[in-house]
Amino acid sequence: MERQIRVLSRNEDCKVVEPAVAWNPVSSVVDDRNSCDTQAGPSLPILRKAHAFTRANQLRDAGLYPYFRSISSAQDTEVMIDGRRVLMLGSNSYLGLTNHPKIKEAASAAVAKYGTGCAGSRFLNGTLDLHIELEQALARLVGAEAVLLFSTGFQVNLGVISALVGRGDYVLGDKSNHASIAEGCNLAAGSFYRFPHRDLAALDARLEKLDPAAGKLIVVDGVFSMEGDIIPLPELCRIARKHNAAVMVDDAHALGVIGRFGSGTASHFGVTDQVQLTMGTFSKSLASLGGYIASDAVTIDFLRHNARSLMFSASMSPANAAAALAALEIMVSEPDRIARLWNNTHRMKQGLLSLGFDLGASETPILPLYVRDFLTTFTMCKRLHEEGVFVNPIASPAVPVGQELLRLSLMATHTDQQIDFTLEKIAKVGRELGVI
Ligand code: PMP
Q1: Cβ–ligand 1 contact at 324 (below 6 Å)
Q2: How far is CA 274 from the centre of its chain?
Q3: pTM tops 0.85, yes or no
Q4: CA 256, CA 274: separation in Å to the nearest integer?
Q5: Among residues 114, 138, 253, 295, which one has the fewest Cβ atoms lying within 10 Å of its Cβ?
Q6: Residue 314 phi, psi dihedral angles, 5° rounding
Q7: How far apart are CA 13 and CA 126, in angstroms?
Q8: Catalytic residue positions?
Q9: pLDDT digits (tens, 9 = 90+) for 186-213
Q10: Which among 178, 226, 309 is the best mutation to test ligand 1's pocket, defined by most ligand atoms within 8 Å of the CB?
């Protein structure tokens, strides 16, 4: 599979001068002779920030860089990294379904039937019967009139919030909301207010000052992705009703974890009829990639024709849609998985608390192990990796400076031995670094 590339001369204003070297698409050798850039990067004002960016290199120089670790196996309770087996405590695969044979078979069958891509947006040529089947299954699960799929959860938050919150409207969000919610709010033409984490009195006070007739959307994570705590949704819905505001809940970390059959935060609290919009993602419990918004049929139809991240982006690939559908069926038909996830969570949580770690206000399988020091957090992450345990270091901007933590996420498929091994290693490294 070789083809010719065009070699561009620096002096010839990007005109083709000669066919030359063979290009191998799988080779890692980059031929930079086809660059039109006649100036060195640092002299271009727009690129100066990239050349002045040192944070990643500082971590690399200190031997503490923890990102983009390359995994050469399936995402499971154990993964292969650099030829070594490492215990995975940093995955969002809460139900442990990413390597499930039935889901892999469903994805393969979808590739055989539909091919590998949809080559267009849902809006135009990219809607499959499979997408509609998945939307209907999700609508049944969350008790909504209608559901609309997007290609990622990030795109749901971008597209839905920016389509709904127009000029003169308001959107109000928790300060710990996921980055995709914050970006959706930034993109919206209306005014954006943030209230302190789970401070519903502050939310109420802010709403009090707004024009009672204006459009208002309150948007929150159901389960907060860094802290692992849950929004007090019944109280939030009461405040929303008082001020004529709509409620949107991001259930990325709640789906498969809380609520009836893992259906999320509103079900967990019994307030399904008081939440107007629920978003979720397939990239966590449902072992795939893609996202959805659930709401009433009229709102979903509006979003179908106004959410730009849906209309101008290609639809979920057939394999992703089939995998999410198969995972959803397993989630609902094997509720024992959720019970195992919670047993594992309790075992790990009790172990960490009895070792003396601070887990903040976590109430879910997301366990934030507060270290509250940047260097110690990254050193602990590196030492745990050396000891065979993968965890994620979390620092600014995901959490405020001084609130650095290691995030552990449990899976239904972790064994007691794996949890006890992790506890042993965390105790060893935590003592070594004076965290406990
Ligand atoms: N919301 C929350 C709370 C998330 O944690 C994430 C993913 N990290 C998203 C939205 C975006 O979902 P996706 O991975 O499907 O883009």
Answers
A1: no
A2: 25
A3: yes
A4: 21
A5: 114
A6: -65, 150
A7: 38
A8: 225, 253, 284
A9: 999 999 999 999 999 999 999 999 999 9
A10: 178
